[in-house]
Amino acid sequence: MNLTLVHWYVIRASGILLLLLYSGATVLGLMNVSRIASPQWPRFVIDRVHRYVALLALVFLAIHILSTVTDSFVATPLVAVIIPFAKSYNTFWVGLGAAASDLMLAITITSIMRARVGARTWRAIHYAVYAAWPLAVLHGMGAGTDASSFWLIALNILCILAVFGALAVRMIAVPRLETV
Prior knowledge:
Layout: H1 3-33, H2 43-70, H3 78-82, H4 91-112, H5 114-117, H6 119-126, H7 129-143, H8 150-173
Helix pairs in contact: 1-2, 1-7, 1-8, 4-6, 4-7
C-alpha cells in the first residue's frame, strides 16, 4: 500500500476519533460539573471516565499531528501545528486545529499540575475547553477530506447536539458556581 494513502487514512481516522473523544470528554465534563449521577454512575466514575477519555483523545491528537506532519502529500510544517495560522496547507482550517490543540495542551498540563496551580487557576484555564472544542469541530468541518459527506455531517451534528444538550442541562441543573 502506498505510504501517502496510509497517512491519509491515519489522518482521517484519528481526526474522526478525536471528534468523538473530545465530544465525549466534553459531555462527561459537563455531566460531572452538573452533579449528574446515579447509583450505577456515581460522580467519581463519571470523573474518571472523563479523564481517561480526555487522555485517550490526547493520544489520538498526537497520532493525528504526527501523521499530518510526516505526510509528504499535505506537507504541513510542524510550526503550523504549534502556532495557529502559520503558513501551511489550508492555513485557516489548520490554524483552527492548531489553536484547539494548544488550548487542549494547556488544559492537560494544568490538569496534571492541578495541585500546584490551585483550583481557581485550574478552573479558569479549564474553561478554555469551551473554545477548544468548537475550534476542533470547525477544524474538522473545514480541513477534513470527508467534511461534505453525509455521514460525517450527521456525526458532527450528533456531537454538537450532545455537547449542547449537556451544556443546557448544566445551565439548568447547576446553581451558579462560585466565581473564578
